[in-house]
Structure prediction request, 133 residues.
Amino acid sequence: MVYRWALPDLGEGVHEGEVVRWHVAPGEPVAMDQVLAEIQTDKALVEIPSPVAGRVLRVLVPEGAVVPVGTVLVEIETEPGQAVAPAAATEGRTGAGGTASGEGGRRRHPARRAHPEGPRLPRRPARTRSASA
Prediction:
């Protein structure tokens, strides 16, 4: 099975990225979570891990190229029925999640998720009214 890995959505407001450096080449084996490439956005330099294990078939975008989110960057040959990394499996679109799942809606960035115990803001003491008015 051929897994077509596309540039994932790297955060709010990021629409494109530059392939700075490939960490894999055609014919090389790749492990799940192994860094595939370094991508420069207008906000940060990001190392992107592989959501699958297999063998790199083709690198489709050269170093230095600037591409929009969703552009297929590399093809990886995998075993039929192989699992995709959990973060990628919930992506809900072609690219980091493999094939499009048709899920709608917008994902929240992990750093923006609510804390399980509620907000971590200091609380003000409750105001009390005095009996003398």
In short: The longest helix spans residues 86-89. The chain has one domain: 2-102. The chain has one helix and eight strands.
